[in-house]
Amino acid sequence: MVGVGIGAIAGLLISGLWYQKRRYRKIQSRAKIIRFREEFLCGSLADYYLSNSKANASPTNSRKTLATPTKEEISDSPASEETLVTPNKEEISDSSTSETNNLAAEPTPAAEFNLLSDSYHKLIEEIVDTALKGQISSKEYIYCQLVENVSSGNGEIFERCLSDRLHSTQSELDQVINSPSLFQKETPELKKARLNRTLKALQSIQGEWERVQKQKQNQAAVTAAVQQILTASEASRFSVLLQIIDPNQNQVFSQSQLQQLAQELKEAASSHDDLHRKQEIQQLAIGIANGVESYQQLEGSLVSWIYEPKATPLGLKESRAKQDPWASWALKVSSPLPKLLFSTLADGGSATEIVVHQSDINLKDWVELTVILQRMQQGLVTWFERQPYDSKWGTSASIATFLSFAVVWCELSNGFRSKGEELAKACFQIVLQILRTFAHREYFPLYGGAFAFFGRDSLQDAIAYLDTPLKEVEGTQEKARILTLLGYSQFILGKYPEANSFHQEALEIARQAGDQPCEIANLNHSSRVCVAQKDYSQAINYSQRALILARQAGDRLGEAHALATLGYSEVFAAQQIECVEPDVYEQAIEYLRRGLELSEKFSDSRFGITLAARQTQALCYISLGIAHVALEKPQAAVEYLEKGTEAVQFSSDKYLQGVNFLYLAESYYNLNNYEKTVYNSCLGMYLLEQITAVEWRQAAGLLTILQSKLGDEAVQQLIVKSRTNIMKFIGVDGYDYLPQLLEKYKRSH
């Protein structure tokens, strides 16, 4: 009995100890919950801990509510190390519910990021799995999935998830090692194939995501454009539109964006109360839409005129291309104003005439014309630049396209001056946009002049229309380059003071903008102008500065041209010295040979560089020829000058062409070849007189000497004999003008 009693007592003690330990664990669990709530405000985490403690406490996962221990019970616990104030059951319940609701309504940024990240990782895996199963028929499926499941404003999170997945896949792929083993669950070869397919699927997702982002950017640009137009004043609304579609902007509007812009402007106009403003916005919208539609009519045959044969008087077809696109385009466009413009230009008229004879200026029609011409110019330049079989011709055509369209807008601007200052400014705004785009091209001719490609001699028009307005433009790098082009164009027309003014202004702007190639080019051009004005010391000064700066900047083309202009200047300076010693020419000849050698390295480069290199070579050959004429070595002079004749044909430098023919005539005269003397004298006399260069009298004097030596009739027969070759350079009118020039010289002599 005693044993039974002792066993019963021992059992009760063990039961009591076990119950006390279990109760202590419950108290500690609730103390942790309270600590979470008070210190970290993590109500939801505490509830999660509580639910786990309930599940662990009861083997049957009972959902019974545990009694909350009182303060005294916690204090009486022997394991208690600190006094805790425990709220009652109702307080815990209310607090937990309130905090849970608050957290649900306003999740923390970290929690939200994790949720989105998990969601996007899951989306990526679903698309990849679908692709691996071969269940994706097109990329449009991926595009739709991204549009539907990636919320706005969270693109960066998706991009990070996609980037992580791409990098991990690529890393795993790089670590796969091929193995000859055939008894693995997945051989390295199969794993590599699977990873490659996964990588391809991920790259497709990346491509479609870029498409989604691009469309969002386009939509944002259109929305912003609509707001700019709606908030602009009536007078400046057209100019605002031109600024929006400026190809120099970071966001260049495509045809689809222009159509979308027109549609949203129509919708905005329909909800406007002001009738006048509503009609004006509608005019803009209709003009944009019509412009895109008209260009689409032309787009397929934009360059077809190049391949169109030209009819002969006998009704036959010539095989050579017809270089007159305006007539071809006039047949393919249906809108009245563009058709009228193209027909007028094809007949040799001016765009100014169209504006002057327009009794009513319809904004819709002018907006349409603006869109058409802008899209045509961009399309032509793009096509010309992509001609791999003849890049030189393509680049030449691109240069002429920029200049020709700029001239058309200049003419339109000039026509609007009498009708509305705002429209005149808007048209010239387009001119500046074109020239600014042109100035950024690699082939921009820093050593070339403006010349037209579309069968119209637009050089003088460009000079006349671009001279004054450009002086009002801010001093930018683009302006310096444009002024360089125009200054050179003035030079080849023989307008030396105007050319010098352009080059000096361009020189200052280029120096401020840090455009050293442009600065070097203007120093070289200024040297040429000074030679033409007989200021040889200043010419040598400019060319020496250009040479030093070019070597410091590493501008090899500028250095070659500086050597050429320095030798050219010194040759002409030496000619002014009576009884000059042969040694005086040696240094100039050395400069010219070095410049020629350096320029030949650029002969096989892109056309923009080749054109400048050919200019340099022409200058070197002609200067070397002149030097050998002075050294009384006519045969060597002829060899250099004949090469100069070939090289100078790449430019529109009439002065250099005329000087080349003049000294060829003198060389052949010294060789007693009178037929070639007459031929070259006629060409030199005509070309130099056309640009009012005084050297034309030197050529005319040589012909007069021949008349005295051979007789008038003999010289006339030689001119008639060379008639065909002379007309190739100066045409029928030039040939017929030769006798008048000789008479003019004789009367003034």
Q: Total helix count?
A: 31
User: Runs with pLDDT <50, length 5+?
Assistant: 35-86, 98-104, 311-322, 451-462
Helix-and-strand structural type: mainly alpha
Instruction: Give the beta-strand count.
Output: 2
Mean pLDDT: 78
Strand order of the largest sheet: 1-2
In this structure, how is the largest beta sheet organized? 2 strands, antiparallel
Measured on Cα atoms, how large is the radius of gyration? 42 Å
Percentage of residues in DSSP E strands? under 5%
Estimated helix fraction: over 70%
Outline: elongated
Question: Could you tell me how far the N terminus lies from the C terminus, measured between alpha carbons in angstroms?
Answer: 163 Å
InterPro entries: TPR-like_helical_dom_sf, TPR_rpt
Protein name: Tetratricopeptide repeat protein
Pfam families: TPR_12
Protein model, in words:
By secondary structure, this protein is mainly α. Among the domains are: 2-105, no CATH class; 114-178 and 186-231, no CATH class; 656-749, no CATH class. Helices cover 75% and strands 1% of the residues. It is built from 31 helices and two strands. The protein has helices at 2-40, 43-57, 71-76, 89-105, 109-132, 139-149, 155-174, 188-231, 237-244, 255-270, 275-299, 325-332, 336-346, 351-356, 363-385, 391-416, 421-439, 459-470, 477-492, 496-513, 516-532, 536-553, 556-575, 583-599, 607-630, 634-648, 654-670, 674-690, 696-710, 712-721, 723-748; strands spanning 310-311, 317-318. It has a two-stranded antiparallel sheet with strand order 1-2. The model is unreliable at 35-86, 98-104, 311-322 and 451-462 (pLDDT under 50). Residues 54-106 are annotated as: Disordered. This is Tetratricopeptide repeat protein.
